[in-house]
Structures are given as structure tokens and as C-alpha cells.
Amino acid sequence: MSAGTFTPAPGAAPLGRQVLSHARMEARLMLRNGEQLLLAVVIPVIVLVGAVAGSERVGLELDAPAIDTFAPGVLALAVMSTAFTSLAIATGFERRYGVIKWLGSSPLPRGGLLAGKVLALLLVEALQVVVLGAVALALGWQPETTAVGLLSALGVAAVGTAAFAALGLFVAGVLRAEATLAAANLVYLLLMAGGAVVLPANAYGGFGDVATWLPSGALGEGMRAALLDGAADVTSMLTLLGWAALGTVLTARTFTWE
Amino acid sequence: MVDSLEMRYGSKTAVDGLSLTVARGSVTAVLGPNGAGKTTTLETCEGYRRPQRGTVRVLGLDPQADRRALLPRIGVMLQEGGAWSGVRAEEMLRHAASLHAAPLPRALLVERLGLAACGRTPYRRLSGGQKQRLALAMAIVGRPELVFVDEPTAGMDPQARRDTWDLLRELRADGVTVVLTTHYMDEAESLADTVHIIDRGQLIASGSPVELTRGGRVSTIRLVVTRPFPPGAPESLTEALGPATSVTVLDPLSLLVTGPADGSTLARVSRWCEEHDVLPESLSLGTRSLEDVFLELTGRELSA
What value does the CA radius of gyration of chain A take, rounded to a whole number of Å? Predict the structure, then answer.
């Protein structure tokens, strides 16, 4: 039989290529979406500038210069916005629009889909770090640049991403798309205000002790320990690992692809 | 039998002890009204649903256990959705292509399915027909051996519909097996080599369109009356017309006679009306279509 235009030649692309393609696609869609961009970059920048200016005005008692305290916190906020809120909303609508269903019939395996999503998150987070880092440096940020500090920051960001991504997927898996949108934004706002992300836990008084056990507090405290003191905050990292484990179990039990 | 799809899928509600086989390299239509179990059957073949009873084999593989081996070889067009709301048609197609080893040239599909007109419009703002055509492109871009298309032309304008049919015929000519669900008679009649008619989760008839309509030689007479038929009407009419015809009561005011619609049959129908004091409102002749086949088998309209 002579080869026609549509003569079958089936086969999956190498897994690595599939995952990269998927990551590129998700990252591009995330960056194109105005609301996501607002969440990823605009709000953190406003929070950073606002916190520095505001703390001077109200005379907040801090152990270090305001910018050095707030910059790590805002990086933590950026991780939270992307790994939790953006991921939850995007995944909720992917379920709604049958994207995940269609991908389920494509050669991309579920593990590859998850890997692509994580890679997309890391890509967006890297861009956030570049933008927010530049703004912070322009505001006079002097981060602790010891090897321990930088590695700890990376480690905290990684386990923080894992924890929030697992929780985000859990929310997206159990709620409808609109409810996910509302819940993910609400949780983000609540944690931003009261979760010891941007403000250090000790600024909350008695609640601060509770806040450090929240994923937001652990992420914020961990980032501050790394970039303010050049220290590895093992407690925060373990707390985040615990949340990641909890989120993974919940997601695995409840997530449906449709 | 490795070349064929054999399915026995049992569930109380959607699909009830259904068995059917698809010949490789053919176009097979699964025809039935909404809710007949078409999509459930298809989604079981695609590995989305686990058979509660019975077995399904696609290209000789178990869609559940051999999922990873099967998926690269098939293409799936969902009834709706399947793309991100903010994605552009061309991007989505590129992504679908990138998941396959030897995809079709995207330009070819863009041209054949008129996707260039989608431009930079996000998916959510494409027309229904454009979404359908993109979904078809996504299903075939990986050069599959077998494509499942669920209601491929629902909501398309006539031109797009004909283009889609041409494309599906071309796929078959190049050796691709096509399984489609539809509730359009004309789609099944003009495209399919084999038609499986499904109703309430059961297979009620199978065959080529020609076989099912008995060559189109047999015709129909539809009789509509002003007052309900007298008791025993179908029996006495069958008796009056002889064994070459069959009578199906559609509702209290209409019935369908299937058989040679010649002068003698017509004369007998009129004489029967006269003898039984039945007042015809209309008497119409037609060629037996798949619609009539469905009507005879189920006593209901397909499109209802």
C-alpha cells in the first residue's frame, strides 16, 4: 500500500520532550493570564514596597532593616501565590474544560503531566525571583549570601512549593472550578494577612507560635532564617514536608481527572 | 481478531450487555439517540471507564491494563472541551503534536480544517464548529491507527460538515480505522461502512447502511389519520397487505408500512381505510432510511 497523507505512524514522543512541552505550555498560559500575573508579580511588588514604606511610618519594631525582613517574606509570598493559588485555579479550570481528560487520552502519562506542572511552577517562580529580587535590591536589600543561606533558601522554596502545590491540587480536585477560584484566592488573602508570610511570626504576638506551624508561616520563617541570618531552619523545612505529605495523601485520595 | 475491537460491557444503566466488533481500516458508526450509551461505550474503549462487567479489547489491548501501550496508537476527539480556555488553536495543536513521535505536519491540518481563521483568538472565544475542528485535528495529529470521534459534526455548518466527512473518508482510505458516534442519520449513512444502532444501552441492529435499509429498494408509506386507529388495526392491515410488508404503529394517529410502495400496496391501504372507516389525513411515500429502521426497531424517533 502506498503511503498516504494520513498513513498511521503512531508513537509517543520521548517522555522528556513531552514534559518540557507541557511545562512550556502551562508556563506560557500562566504568564499570559492577567489575573495570574497580578497574583504572581504585581501584588508581591506592591506588598514589598508598601510594607517597607508602611513599617517606617508606623515605626514597626523589627530586628533588622525593614527591606531585609520583608524581601524574603515577599519571595515566600510569591512561591505561595504560584504553587498554591495559580496552580489550584489553573487545574480547576483544566478539569472543567476537559483539558486533563483529553491529556488522559494522549501519550503524556499522569506522572509526566505532574512533572510538567511542577516544572512550569518552577519556571514561573524563577521569573518571580528575578523581578522581585531586582525590586528588593533596588530598595536596598542586602541579603545574606552565604552558601548555607542560599542553599537553605532554595531548599525552603522547594519544600514550600511541594507543600502548597499538593494543597492546591487537593482544593482543585475536590471543588468545582468557580469554588476553587474563590477558595484559592480567599486562602491566599488570609494567609498573606495573618499567616506570617511577609510579616515575621513574632510580630503577631501570641498567635505567632501557631502561625509558624502553618505552611505559610513555615515558608516565611524559613526564608527569613536563610536570607536574613544565613541559617538553615530545619523545623520550618520539616513542617513544610509534613504539609506536603498531608496534601499529597489528600490529593491522591480525592483527585479525579475529570 | 487481533485486528478487531471486541467489546462486552455490562452495566445496569448505561450499557447493557453490548457486544460489537470493529473491522480495521473501516469507518464504523455507533448510532443512537442521546443517552443511548454511545459515549459511555466509547469512553470505555478509550480507557476512561473500567468495564463493570465484560471485556473490551482495542487493537488487541486492554484499555485499562495496557493503557500506556495503547494511547499513543489511538486518537480521541472528545464531544466537547479538551483545550485550555486561553490557548490559541495553533498552540494547542503544536502541543498535541509534540506529544507524538512522528506527528502530521501542522500546516496540513491547519489548512485542511480551516484553523488559520482562528488566528490568535483564545479557545473560549472560538465558534462551536472551530472548536470541533480543532478537536479533530488534535485527535489525528499523532498519526493514530484508530481514531474515536464523538459526535464530530455536532453544531457545524453544512460546509464544515462536508469537509469533515471528506477528511474522515480520507483517513479511512489511508488505512486509519475510524469509530464515530452520531445521532445524525445522514452522517452514518454517507460515511460508515458499518453501522451499529444502539438504544438504551443495547445493540439493536448492525450492518452496512445498505443492508440495514435493505438496499433502498424497499420503501415506506406513512399513514396519518384524523381519529385514532380502531382496535386490531395493525393486524388487519398486515393481513390485507400480505407477507411482503410490515406495519409499525408509531402513535395512535400514525403508522408506517414498510414494503414495496407500489400501486397495489397503495390500493390495498386505501381499501383497508375504507373498510375500517379510517379517515386518512396524509399518506406519504419515502425510501426506507436508517431513521425508519430505528423507528421500526424501537417504535421511537431517533432524533427525539
Answer: 20
- Pairing state between β B5-10 and B56-57: antiparallel
Q: Which residues of A touch B101 (CB under 8 A)?
A: 9-13
Q: Which residue of A has its CA nearest to B101?
A: A13
Beta-sheet strand order (sheet of B16-22): B16-22, B5-10, B56-57
B112-130: per-residue pLDDT in tens?
999 999 999 999 999 999 9
**Residue from the list B72, B84, B91 with its beta carbon closest to the beta carbon of A107:** B72
Element (DSSP H or E) covering residue A235? helix A234-254
Helix (H) or strand (E) holding B205: strand B202-207
A8:B86 CB<8 A: no
Distances (CA, A) of B235 to B218, B229, B241, B249, B272: 21, 11, 10, 10, 11
Question: B7 forms bridges with which residues in the sheet?
Answer: B20, B56
Residue of chain A whose alpha carbon sits nearest to that of B45: A105
> For chain B, which residues score pLDDT lower than 50?
1-4, 11-12, 304
Residues of B in contact with A96 (CB under 8 A): 81
The complex scores an ipTM of 0.88
Q: Is A53 exposed, middle or buried (0-12, 13-18, 19+ CB in 10 A)?
A: exposed
pLDDT tens per residue across span B203-224: 888 888 888 876 555 678 888 8
Best A1, A2, A6 residue to mutate vs chain B (most B CBs within 10 Å): A6
More confident residue, A225 or A61: A225
Between β-strands B56-57 and B16-22, what pairing exists: parallel, antiparallel or unpaired?
unpaired
* Minimum Cα–Cα distance from A9: chain B residue: B143
- Which residue type occupies A181? L
Report whether B8 contacts B18 (CB < 8 A): yes
Could you tell me which residues come within 8 angstroms of residue A28 by beta carbon, excluding any fewer than 6 positions away?
B91
Identify the CA nearest to B50 among candidates B31, B63, B59: B63
The amino acid at residue A150 is L
Residue A115 scores a pLDDT above 60: yes
- The C-alpha atoms of residue A94 and residue A221 are separated, in whole angstroms, by 33
Phi, psi of B172 (to 5 degrees): -65, -45
Interatomic CA distance for residues B51 and B63, integer angstroms: 10
pLDDT digits (tens, 9 = 90+) for A14-53: 999 999 999 999 999 999 988 888 999 999 999 999 999 9
Query: In 10 A of CB B151, how many CB atoms?
Result: 21
